[in-house]
Structures are given as structure tokens and as C-alpha cells.
Amino acid sequence: xxxxxxxxxxxxxxxxxxxxxxxxxxxxxxxxxxxxxxxxxxxxxxxxxxxxxxxxxxxxxxxxxxxxxxxxxxxxxxxxxxxxxxxxxxxxxxxxxxxxxxxxxxxxxxxxxxxxxxxx
Length: 120
Description:
By secondary structure, the protein is an alpha+beta fold. The protein has a single domain (2-119), classed as Beta-Lactamase, CATH 3.30.450.30. 38% of the residues lie in helices and 28% in strands. InterPro entries: LAMTOR3 (IPR015019). Keywords: Kinase, Transferase.
């Protein structure tokens, strides 16, 4: 399962990590480059991303399907594929549109993981 993630990462310059987590932020599968920020791959960070998406659902604008956060040197793009969260970490100079275009491919990969999470 990791090989398709590495292939997707190679399609976007500056994309440093793709992580699939359960609703508690526990990493199920991840692929990352050596330059990926270590703190962004920790369970506590990933759980916070999931919680932020949950809070977004409470804004009254409908379900929060994706979230883009921009920081000084990084950007974080997350997709809500309940019960999974897909988190992508990239440099701040990476093309956000190209990262968002990976959504369909990532959703396909998440289908097999979803069945594992739903049964546990």
C-alpha cells in the first residue's frame, strides 16, 4: 500500500508526506520523504488535524470535507473520508491545487483501509 503513496508524492513537487489515520489520529499507513517535518507525523499533530475538521462541521456550512492550512514553511491539506482522515504535508511553495487534485486517487486507496477501520 505504501508504493502507490510514494508514486503520488512524486507527482507534486514539495509534497513531503501522506498519512492515513483513524478518527483518533492513529497513523494507519504513511509515506514520507526525509525532509518531512517530524512533528507533523506525530499522532498528537494528526489527532489535532482530525479534531479541527470535526470542529469545522459545527460551523453550520455543511460537512467539512477538506481543509487547507498554511504555515510559515509548510502547508497541510486534509481530506475527511470518515472514519479516516488523509493528511498531506508539503512545503509552503508546493502547488496547493495539484495537492487537492490527488483527492480522487487518495479516496480510492482509502476504500481498502476503511473496511479495516470499520471492523475494528
